[in-house]
Specification:
The chain is of the alpha/beta class. It folds into two domains: 153 residues, Aspartate Aminotransferase, domain 1; 281 residues, Type I PLP-dependent aspartate aminotransferase-like (Major domain) (Aspartate Aminotransferase, domain 2), CATH 3.40.640.10. Helices cover 37% and strands 16% of the residues. The strands form three sheets. It has a seven-stranded mixed sheet with strand order 4-11-10-9-8-5-6, with helices on both faces. A five-stranded mixed sheet has the order 7-12-13-16-15, with helices on one face. A hairpin with a 2-residue loop joins strand 15 and strand 16. Helix 3 packs antiparallel against helix 12, helix 5 packs across helix 11 and helix 13 packs parallel to helix 15. The longest helix is centred in the last third of the chain and has 20 residues. It is globular, with a radius of gyration of 22 Å. It starts with 17 loop residues before the first helix and ends with a helix. The relative contact order is 0.16. The protein binds pyridoxal-5'-phosphate (PLP). The site of pyridoxal-5'-phosphate (PLP) has 14 residues, from helix 5.
């Protein structure tokens, strides 16, 4: 198929420079295992699991078969006041994987919806306990929690926020970012050890300013993914947990990227040994093949929400929230098959094993190349940061992304970063190809 076999007048592409895309379209028509087939018949390695989704690789038959079977059995049913068998089974499996008493799954369809859902749960939970004044949120600079108004407000990526002004939620503050580009430019499968405690700012400035009794929740990505794979300082998440506990503040982990194996464990929460009060997930839960997201809440939150309505008649709804497609049977059938496949093929373990292979390759091949100012690897993901071109933020990384694409490798450009997060089935030789292609492109962009 040639470019001009498709009319490209009607699709407005998301998070994409549309004008440049029109001049040099990148269109996939098939995928299998680690590779895409392009419209012009070329093979491209999926170096980013199609944005952190496709952990098990593309075109996995057990998932495809489960979807087909579900379509022929129960295609769809409404989610309100009735439900379906697959939604209960998927929730049971996710709750069994989630740490501690994270047992109650609220389904939605995406990471953005998960962010807004978790924020609404936080407000409703505090109100149910008679603390409705807790209505403020704390996010983190350069955090990404999707594109809903809640997620955008607690998010901290400037370009995503700048045109929305006063439409963002008013009562939000942000923790400082977790990266020191001088002392910790190079992070190689370790947790950086800082000589300062960057959470003192939360304790000494942010909480006193707003008064801790007004804060509903803190929301963070355990590892800052969308910004370009930034790893938290050693002990950071444990200390954040302690501070939240001390002040009755809920802690929400946005595990939309880190959930389901990326760090070699089911969740980053397991990797760091810190349990949040709510855990947001999406993406890899269905291997990306069908939209599904959700929020796993503790029993404590659920019970408070049920108990608060002690005087209400049993027909009364406890939480006025949900989506037409919450717990969609086809999405949940995909999730069940995906989670079974992850377990049968021990794919989280494999991600944990291949992580250092990717990290080693990135540090060995890219350190010292022109314009490389940092490399960070943890789990099966790694980023290289390039010096920006003055006056043209993101241009160098975009050029490298394009060059890699034309040489058969899909890498993610995020600001000045190029990020790899391949499917867990990736082979060593494919990592060599990906990193070698990236190295060549960085040299050409110098
Ligand atoms: C941490 C995090 N939260 C939320 C989202 C938003 O997810 P979605 O694009 O499915 O709405 C993303 C997407 O990349 C993400 O990385």
């Amino acid at each position: 198929m040639a470019y001009n076999d498709l009319r490209m007048d009607n699709q407005w592409l998301p998070f994409t420079p549309n004008r440049s895309f029109q001049k040099d379209p990148r269109i996939f028509v098939a995928a299998d295992g680690m590779h895409f087939t392009t419209h012009d018949g070329r093979q491209v390695i999926d170096g980013i699991s199609s944005l952190w989704c496709v952990g098990a690789g593309h075109n996995r038959k057990p998932i495809n078969e489960a979807i087909k079977k579900q379509l022929d059995t129960l295609d769809y049913s409404t989610a309100f006041s009735v439900s379906n068998d697959k939604a209960f089974r998927a929730a049971e499996m996710i709750a069994a994987m989630a740490p501690g008493d994270l047992n109650k799954v609220l389904f939605c369809n995406s990471g953005s919806e998960a962010a807004d859902t978790s924020m609404k749960v936080a407000l409703a939970y505090h109100r149910a306990r008679g603390e409705g004044h807790r209505n403020m949120f704390i996010g983190r600079e350069r955090g990404y929690h999707g594109v809903g108004f809640g997620g955008m407000s607690v998010g901290g990526i400037p370009a995503n926020r700048k045109v929305y002004g006063t439409s963002l939620l008013p009562r939000v503050d942000h923790l400082r970012f977790i990266h020191d580009p001088v002392k910790h430019a190079y992070v190689h499968n370790t947790e950086p050890v800082w000589d300062e405690d960057i959470l003192l700012e939360l304790e000494n400035r942010i909480l006193p300013l707003h008064d801790p009794s007004n804060i509903a929740a803190v929301i963070v990505e355990p590892v800052a993914g969308s910004a370009g794979w930034y790893v938290p300082p050693q002990g950071y998440l444990k200390r954040l947990r302690e501070i939240c506990d001390k002040h009755g503040i809920l802690l929400i982990f946005d595990e939309v990227i880190t959930g389901f194996g990326r760090l070699g464990t089911a969740f980053a929460s397991d990797y760091y040994g810190v349990q949040p009060d709510m855990l947001n997930f999406a993406k890899a839960v269905t291997n990306g093949v069908f939209p599904l997201g959700g929020v796993v809440c503790t029993d404590r939150i659920y019970n408070a929400m049920m108990g608060a309505h002690g005087n209400a008649p049993e027909h009364a709804i406890e939480f006025f929230h949900g989506y037409t497609y919450s717990g969609h049977p086809v999405a949940c059938a995909a999730a069940i098959a995906t989670l079974d496949l992850f377990r049968e093929e021990d794919l989280f373990k494999r991600a944990g094993e291949m992580g250092p292979v990717l990290g080693d390759a990135m540090h060995a091949a890219l350190k010292g190349l022109p314009n490389v100012i940092g490399i960070r690897s943890l789990g099966l993901a790694a980023a290289v940061e390039l010096a920006p071109i003055a006056g043209l933020p993101g241009k160098r990384a975009f050029d490298v992304f394009m060059d890699c694409y034309h040489h058969g490798v899909l890498v993610r450009n995020a600001g000045e970063n190029l990020v790899f997060a391949p499917p867990y089935i990736v082979e060593r030789a494919q990592i060599d190809t990906m990193v070698g292609t990236l190295a060549d492109a960085i040299k050409r962009a110098a």
